[in-house]
Specification:
The protein has 74 residues and is mostly helical. The protein contains two helices and no strands.
């Protein structure tokens, strides 16, 4: 097999794989777009993914790592 035929085959296979992935991505996009959103989450005021953090709030520091005041003295 000559180098020209090898490179042509690689380019053709790469092109076909790219087209297949593009079509698959488009189908996945359309399937996701067709789903109806969950309205129960939208109506509530609670955050869906995150908890609100207020700097300086002692309740927000509950999950933080404990600090040792005497570390600087060592």
């Amino acid at each position: 097999m000559s180098i020209n035929a090898l490179l042509s085959t690689i380019i053709l296979v790469t092109f076909i794989v790219t087209v297949v992935l593009a079509v698959g991505s488009y189908v996945a996009y359309k399937v996701r777009e067709r789903r109806q959103p969950d309205t129960s989450r939208i109506a509530s005021d609670e955050p869906v993914f995150f908890e609100r953090f207020f700097p300086g709030d002692p309740a927000g520091a509950a999950g933080a790592a404990p600090t040792e005041p005497d570390v600087a003295a060592r």
